[in-house]
């Protein structure tokens, strides 16, 4: 039984699908269903006897204690987090509460549960903490990619809150012996991603004939990781990751934001040609004022997880992006349901969030 926090979110939902489809593990999904949590992403698994859902927050210790008592998880895969950089700039309080305080409360309950286990089950327990490459700050052109020893230098309230949660997890391992494994991933993309993120945001804006806003000159570089590759990597950490170690998970696809938008437009020109006045969706690209503290470049060195655990990405950005655009075109009802349930792009409809 795996406890997955934030399982109704983008990465969490894909991870749950992967686990139920490719392993014999059962899952209990704890999610607060805030604006970015979407149970519709898990409709196909709701009837699966190996899937259990609990509506609640990692900030609620009573709920956490009840889950550990009732479901007796063999591992925690901690994904629950506020993760939108622009929202963290507009209102950092939620990020401090969820990402720092929530992680602390989860660690405390997990530690007490782990200490209560018998001699057979205690060594098997794992706490997998899923973090982000943004804790490392950014890179200049030509600088080597982030590795597991890169010093932390977060730039935004979001990345600072994730860095804080990482330090808590490390401290609970060092001080109390909690068996943790940590990962840092690069920018994810794929099915079930919330419409405020760069790729789905551009797809939906383009289909609606709206401007495709690009920050600054659009030359910020990100390392793009298909979410299904990420899910495989996280399961590899669960089964083979070494306690106390950190593993970076990246897609080895460094692409500028502007080129991402252009490639989305090219695919849409092919798969869903514009019926409006624009011959190509690229004509909708609009440059807007850059975001405060915008990181220039991210890149992940995946040597450690490749050599020690035998994981590597299977999707190129070209193949993964095609699959992603095709999924959104086939699942516009999923997107419309989010909008109909009160999601509003404002004040973020003028930007291309990452």
List keywords for this structure.
single chain; alpha/beta; disordered C terminus; 7-stranded parallel beta sheet; 40% helix; globular; 3-stranded mixed beta sheet; Rossmann fold
Number of DSSP helical runs: 11
Strand order of the largest sheet: 3-2-1-4-5-6-10
Strand content: 15-25%
Uncertain residue segments: 344-354
The run of helices and strands is EHEEHEHHEHEEHEEHEEHEHHH
What is the top-level CATH class of the domain at 2-192 and 225-253 and 298-316? Alpha Beta
Oligomer: single chain
Shape: globular
Helix-strand makeup class: alpha/beta
* Portion of residues within helices: 40-55%
Secondary-structure topology with pairs:
Elements: E1 2-5, H1 10-22, E2 27-31, E3 51-55, H2 61-71, E4 75-78, H3 85-90, H4 93-116, E5 126-132, H5 157-176, E6 180-185, E7 187-189, H6 198-207, E8 212-215, E9 221-226, H7 227-240, E10 246-249, E11 254-256, H8 257-271, E12 285-288, H9 303-309, H10 317-330, H11 332-340
Parallel strand pairs: 1-2, 1-4, 2-3, 4-5, 5-6, 6-10, 7-9, 8-12
Antiparallel strand pairs: 9-11
Helix pairs in contact: 1-7, 2-4, 4-5, 6-8, 8-10
Structure, explained:
It is a single chain. The chain is of the alpha/beta class and 354 residues long. It has a domain at 2-192 and 225-253 and 298-316: 3-Layer(aba) Sandwich (Rossmann fold). It is built from eleven helices and twelve strands. It has helices at residues 10-22, 61-71, 85-90, 93-116, 157-176, 198-207, 227-240, 257-271, 303-309, 317-330, 332-340; strands at 2-5, 27-31, 51-55, 75-78, 126-132, 180-185, 187-189, 212-215, 221-226, 246-249, 254-256, 285-288. The strands form three sheets. It has a seven-stranded parallel β-sheet with strand order 3-2-1-4-5-6-10, sandwiched between helices. Helix 1 packs across helix 7 and helix 8 (257-271) packs across helix 10.
